[in-house]
Specification:
By secondary structure, the chain is of the alpha+beta class. The protein has a domain at 17-93: GIY-YIG endonuclease. The protein has 4 helices and 3 strands; from the N terminus they run αββααβα. It has a 3-stranded antiparallel β-sheet with strand order 2-1-3. The longest helix has 16 residues, at 89-104. It starts with a helix and ends in a 14-residue tail after the last helix. The relative contact order is 0.21. It comes from Heyndrickxia ginsengihumi. This is GIY-YIG nuclease family protein. InterPro entries: GIY-YIG_endonuc, GIY-YIG_endonuc_sf. Residues 18-113 form the GIY-YIG domain.
Length: 118
């Protein structure tokens, strides 16, 4: 099997994991907390920042201002899936994200997230 096919197969076999991630500016310590149903898509988040199309304008502006070297992207917590027919991954992920938003308060001077009103 050639290397390309091998890598493709490895990608397909990698389990899909959902959870919470953080993009942190190492210069001013501001952070963005986000969630994803598939950590494989974090490359896509980086791609949107590099191409100037990320939906968070403040994060996008500072990405361009400081450069990608000033940012780290880390997984904060993986979602523990349940074998329950009534388990709703989307709701569980939203709850997990809210827990991290509450804990880290990445708003205003501390971060790039916008407060959600309920």
């Amino acid at each position: 099997m050639d290397r390309k096919k091998e890598l493709k197969q490895l990608y397909k076999e990698t389990p899909i994991e959902a959870g919470i991630y953080q993009i942190k500016n190492t210069i001013n310590e501001k952070m963005f907390i986000g969630s994803t149903r598939n950590f494989k898509t974090l490359n896509g988040v980086t791609f949107t920042l590099e191409t100037g199309t990320h939906t968070n304008k403040t994060l996008q502006d500072e990405w361009h201002q400081f450069g990608k070297e000033a940012f780290t992207i880390d997984i904060l917590e993986k979602l523990k899936k349940k074998d329950d027919p009534y388990y709703n991954e989307k709701e569980a992920l939203a709850e997990l994200e809210n827990k991290w938003l509450e804990q880290l308060q990445p708003y205003g001077e501390r971060g790039y997230n916008k407060k959600k009103f309920r």
